[in-house]
Design brief:
Number of helices: 4
Number of domains: 3
Strand content: 35-45%
Radius of gyration: 27 Å
Structural class: mainly beta
Largest sheet: 12 strands, antiparallel
Helix content: under 10%
Shape: globular
Length: about 625
C-alpha cells in the first residue's frame, strides 16, 4: 500500500454508524501507536482515510470492532455474526498490511529524477515540431524524423491524470494558474487553461493526489465539444513537481529521451515544459481506466532493482538466475548475431531481462462486428477461420490465432512511455591495429592484426515509446487500438493489439565502457573528463535511439473480486532490434559494429491492472 492511500472495505450489507468510532489504525513498526483516521461510510463501502502520511516500509493493523452492524433498524446483524469463510479478513476483524518501501542504496541511482509514464490527455514528454496542422508533435530528444503524434483528444467526463515512475512529494502537487503567454504554470506546477480571444484563462478544478499519480477533476460544464484546451506541466519553470524525500527530492524530468539519470555530461532534472493542446469531444459511450504494471519492483525508478526493493521474481535457481515463470512484467532478451567491429556478444546472466514499469490509459468502446483486418491490426483471415499476421515475423515465422465468434470490442490505447530496467551486454570489439598505426605501418605488416577489447555495455534504463504509424507514406497516421475477442477453447476473453514502438537507451555510456575496457574497472590513470575529451575528438556513437519495433501482444483478461480488470499479455511474434556502435572513427577509420538483439516469441510477459473499485478478498491466484 502507498503511504498516502485510503483503505477501502466493502461489506455485504449497508452499514449503520454503530461502532465506526471504535475502528483503529495502529502503526505496528513504531510501537503500535494509534494513527488518526477519518471514517466515511457510503452504502456497503467504508473508506478509512489516515490523517497523516504513513511511514514507508512499515507494518500497520486496521482493527474493526464486533459492534459494527448493518442498517436494519429492528433486527441488526453484527460483524461478529458473519461467516469466517466468506469474510475477507477470515473472521479476525484485523487487516494487516505493509506500506511501500522506497529504500535506495549507494548504487541505486539517487540521481534518477522522476518522469511521467502516463499522461491523459497527452504523453509524458516535452514536445517539439508542434506546428504541423493535425499533429501534436514528437518527444524532444528523439530522432528528428520520428513520426508525429496525432492531435490529442479528451472525451468529456474522463479524469485528467498523470502517473509517475517513482513516488512523489505530494506536497508539491498543486494546481496552478496559466502564465500570460500560456507556456508555463504559476503558483503550482500543473495547470489547465483555455485561450479566450487571444487571452489565456485558467480552468478551475479539484486535484486529488497520491504518491504515484495525480488526478484532476474539472468543474461541471467546463469543456465544450469541439473546443481546444491546454494542459501544462512545468519542467524548467517554477514551481516544479519533486520526487519523494527518500528518493532525493529531485525535480521532474520532462525530456527523458535526452537522459534518464544524471551523469557527468547530462543533468536529467527539469527540461522543457510539457505543453499539451487537446480538443474536447462529446462522450461516446466508453469505459475509461488507466492500467498499471503490477506487481513491479523498481520503486525508485533507478533502472534496476536495489536493496530494499521487492525482487522482480519470487523463485531463483542455484546459480542466481531467476525462475522465469515466477517473474512478472519482463521481457527476456538474447543476442542473435554480431557484425563488423563487434565480433562477439552475450548478455550477462541475470541481466538478460528488462523489467517494466508503466501506466497506460485505455478506453473500452462499444462492441462491433469481428474484423481483425482493420488497418491498425492488419491480420488476415484464413480458410480455417483463424487470423494470421500479414507477414512472417523478424525470424521468418508465421503466427495465427484461432478466433471464434462474430463480434469484438475495440479498446482505445493512448500513446505513453514504459520504463524498463537495463541490460548488460558483454561485447568483444575487434580493433584493427593497422588502422591504429596509420602511416607508421608503411609496410602494411599489421593490416590484418586485430586487437580484441572486451567492452561491457550497460544500457541502464530502457524506454519504450508507443509509436504513431502510417500504413504507407500517402496515408494518415492511424489511431492505436486493441481488440477483445474470444479464442477457440478458452473461456476467458482475449486482448490483442499490434503495438508499434520505439526502443530508446538514453543513458548508454560508451565513454565509461571504453574507460573500463582500456584501463580496467576503477582505474583512474586517465580521468573521465580526459577520456571524454578524447572521445569528443575522435568520436563514439550508438544507434539506440528511436529503434523501431512492432509487437503483436495478446493475452487473457480476468475480472478480480475487488473490481480490478487484469490483463496479462505476451508477444505473439519474434522481435529484433539492432544496436550499432561506432568507436573512435577519427582515429581508427573503419570502426563500426553492431549486435542484433532478439526478444523471442512468448518471452515478453506484461501484467497490467486498474486500481481496485471495491475492497473484497482477492482470489489466491491474484497478484
Amino acid at each position: 500500500m502507498e503511504t498516502n492511500d485510503n483503505i477501502l472495505l466493502s461489506f455485504n450489507e449497508p452499514l449503520s454508524p454503530m461502532g465506526l468510532d471504535d475502528i483503529q489504525l495502529l502503526d505496528m513498526s513504531h510501537g503500535g501507536t494509534a494513527v488518526a483516521i477519518m471514517i466515511k461510510r457510503s452504502g456497503t463501502t467504508l473508506t478509512v482515510s489516515p490523517q497523516a502520511r504513513l511511514h514507508p516500509a512499515s507494518e500497520y493493523q486496521l482493527t474493526l470492532p464486533d459492534s459494527i452492524s448493518d442498517i436494519h433498524a429492528h433486527n441488526p446483524r453484527y460483524l461478529s455474526e458473519g461467516s469466517a469463510s466468506d469474510d475477507a479478513l477470515g473472521g479476525t476483524n484485523t487487516l494487516t498490511f505493509t506500506t511501500a518501501d522506497y529504500t535506495i542504496s549507494a548504487n541505486a541511482g539517487e540521481d534518477v529524477p522522476p518522469m511521467i509514464l502516463g499522461l491523459h490527455p497527452g504523453i509524458g514528454c516535452a514536445l517539439v515540431n508542434t506546428s504541423v496542422p493535425g499533429y501534436a508533435g514528437r518527444c524532444k530528444g528523439g530522432k528528428s524524423d520520428d513520426e508525429l503524434y496525432l492531435d490529442f483528444q479528451y472525451e468529456i467526463g474522463r479524469v485528467i491524470e498523470a502517473s509517475f515512475s517513482q513516488p512523489m512529494d505530494t506536497d508539491t502537487m498543486v494546481l496552478g494558474t496559466i502564465s500570460q503567454d500560456g507556456s508555463a504554470c504559476e503558483n503550482g506546477p500543473i495547470c489547465l487553461a483555455v485561450d479566450l480571444d487571444g487571452s489565456w484563462q485558467s480552468i478551475s478544478a479539484a486535484l486529488v493526489t497520491s504518491n504515484l499519480k495525480l488526478q484532476i477533476f474539472p468543474d461541471a460544464d467546463t469543456f465544450v465539444a469541439g473546443e481546444e484546451y491546454r494542459l501544462v506541466v512545468n519542467g524548467d519553470s517554477s514551481p516544479k513537481l519533486y520526487s519523494h524525500n527518500t528518493l532525493g527530492h529531485l525535480p521532474l524530468n520532462t525530456t527523458p529521451m535526452e537522459g534518464i539519470g544524471k551523469t557527468s555530461t547530462h543533468n536529467s532534472e527539469g527540461g522543457s515544459n510539457i505543453v499539451i493542446d487537446f480538443t474536447a469531444v462529446a462522450p461516446f459511450d466508453t469505459v475509461y481506466a488507466t492500467v498499471y504494471t503490477r506487481p513491479y519492483s523498481d520503486f525508485n525508478g533507478s533502472g534496476g532493482w536495489d536493496e530494499g526493493e521487492p525482487q522482480p521474481c519470487t523463485q531463483w535457481n542455484s546459480d542466481g538466475s531467476p525462475v522465469e515463470e515466477s517473474c512478472s512484467n519482463f521481457a527476456t532478451a538474447d543476442v542473435l548475431d554480431t557484425h563488423g567491429l563487434i565480433t562477439d556478444a552475450s548478455l550477462t546472466e541475470g541481466r538478460d531481462k528488462i523489467f517494466a514499469t508503466g501506466a497506460l490509459p485505455m478506453a473500452f468502446k462499444p462492441k462491433q462486428p469481428l474484423d481483425l483486418g482493420l488497418p491498425d491490426l492488419g491480420m488476415e483471415p484464413q480458410s480455417d477461420g483463424s487470423w494470421c499476421m500479414p507477414e512472417p515475423d523478424d525470424l521468418g515465422e508465421e503466427h495465427c490465432l484461432n478466433v471464434v465468434g462474430d463480434t469484438m470490442i475495440p479498446v482505445e490505447v493512448n500513446h505513453q512511455l514504459i520504463l524498463g530496467t537495463g541490460l548488460t551486454i558483454n561485447a568483444d570489439a575487434g580493433l584493427n591495429f593497422g588502422n591504429l598505426l596509420g602511416d607508421l605501418d608503411f609496410l602494411n605488416i599489421f593490416d590484418d592484426f586485430i586487437i580484441s577489447i572486451p567492452l561491457k555495455l550497460n544500457t541502464r534504463s530502457v524506454v519504450l515509446r508507443t509509436r504513431p504509424e502510417r500504413p504507407d507514406a500517402q496515408s494518415d497516421v492511424l489511431p492505436l487500438n486493441g481488440y477483445i475477442v474470444n479464442l477457440e477453447g478458452d473461456q476467458k476473453p482475449y486482448f490483442i493489439v499490434r503495438l508499434p514502438a520505439w526502443l530508446d537507451v538514453p543513458d548508454l555510456d560508451l565513454v565509461a565502457a571504453l574507460q573500463e575496457a582500456i584501463l580496467g574497472e576503477g582505474n583512474d590513470i586517465l580521468s573521465f573528463a580526459q577520456l571524454n575529451d578524447f572521445v569528443d575528438q575522435y568520436g563514439a556513437t550508438h544507434t539506440a535511439k528511436s529503434l523501431p519495433i512492432v509487437a503483436y501482444l495478446y493475452g487473457p483478461i480476468s475480472f478480480q473480486d475487488d473490481g480490478r480488470i487484469t490483463l496479462k499479455v505476451s508477444n505473439l511474434n519474434n522481435i529484433t532490434a539492432t544496436l550499432g556502435i561506432e568507436l573512435l572513427p577519427g582515429l581508427l577509420g573503419a570502426s563500426a559494429g553492431s549486435a542484433d538483439l532478439l526478444l523471442p516469441a512468448e518471452k515478453v510477459s506484461l501484467q497490467v491492472m486498474n486500481l481496485p473499485s471495491r475492497a473484497r478478498k482477492l482470489p489466491e491466484n491474484a497478484q
